[in-house]
Task: structure prediction
Amino acid sequence: MERIEKLKEFLQVSPEDSFIKHALALEYINLGDDKTARDLFEELLNREPGYTGSYYHLAKLLERIGQMKDAIEVYEKGMKETKRTGDNHAYNELRAAYEELTF
Result:
């Protein structure tokens, strides 16, 4: 809980910092608060679609809670974005997870 409070303090200073928001979402996943984590990931990706690491974690969260259609959509958006930015490593990770889910 202490890390969450520290990350929230950092966000007050830099509310648009995607790294902090991503880290906070991961902390909420660790606490089992999937709704808050999902909200943070979605807010981050709506504001900054090029923050590609969040696609993977959001899609995995959606898989875990049984929202497979939504997870597939997030993987697809992430693959499209990583192709656009030339981030082949992230693209390959997203594609592998996507294929594992869909095949």
Summary: The helical segments are 2-13, 18-31, 34-47, 53-64, 68-85, 88-102.
